[in-house]
């Protein structure tokens, strides 16, 4: 299984009054991880948009295990958990610089027409991308 890794230095602006990373920032990091995975597979999300296709999030789950603080390095590990004709589920793990698991999550995406937001079949619209995802899951 292909696992993409993206390192992120925790910035002061990402922390809350308690000095830990504000919970919503993990969602931004998931997006960075997903984008890295797509790049590692040889594709660009921007190319999808140029073709009039978007990939909105339709479900998101996250569980927090350990706090991250300003100055630490977060490593986001991203993989394709499942793939279907219409949706893709990505899996995320966020580790601190000591290798401790800080957060886990999943996001479910579909692809839709930018024009009318009607769902599209991923395999039909982007067969090479779909095949790369199938291979990445093995």
UniProtKB/TrEMBL annotation:
UniProt entry tagged with the keyword Transmembrane helix: no
Keyword Ubl conjugation: no
GO molecular-function terms, A-Z: fatty acyl-CoA hydrolase activity
Organism superkingdom: Bacteria
Alphabetical UniProt keywords: Hydrolase
Ranges of residues in domain Thioesterase: 18-102
InterPro entries tied to this protein: 4-hydroxybenzoyl-CoA_TE, HotDog_dom_sf, Thioestr_dom, YbgC/YbaW
Classification via Pfam families: 4HBT (PF03061)
NCBIfam families in UniProt: YbgC/FadM family acyl-CoA thioesterase
PANTHER family found in the cross-reference section: 4-HYDROXYBENZOYL-COA THIOESTERASE FAMILY MEMBER, NOVEL THIOESTERASE SUPERFAMILY DOMAIN AND SAPOSIN A-TYPE DOMAIN CONTAINING PROTEIN (0610012H03RIK)
The family this protein is said to belong to: Belongs to the 4-hydroxybenzoyl-CoA thioesterase family.
Name of the protein in question: Acyl-CoA thioesterase
């Amino acid at each position: 299984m292909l696992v993409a890794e993206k390192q992120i230095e925790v910035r002061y602006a990402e922390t809350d009054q308690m000095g830990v990373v504000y919970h919503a920032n993990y969602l931004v990091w998931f997006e960075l991880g997903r984008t890295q995975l797509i790049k590692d597979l040889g594709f660009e999300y921007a190319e999808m948009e140029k073709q009039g296709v978007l990939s909105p999030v339709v479900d998101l789950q996250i569980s927090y295990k350990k706090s991250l603080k300003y100055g630490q390095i977060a490593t986001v590990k991203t993989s394709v958990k499942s793939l279907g004709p219409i949706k893709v589920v990505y899996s995320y793990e966020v580790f601190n610089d000591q290798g401790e698991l800080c957060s886990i999550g999943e996001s479910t995406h579909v692809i839709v027409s930018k024009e009318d937001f009607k769902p599209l079949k991923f395999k039909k619209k982007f067969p090479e991308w779909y095949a790369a995802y199938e291979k990445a899951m093995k």
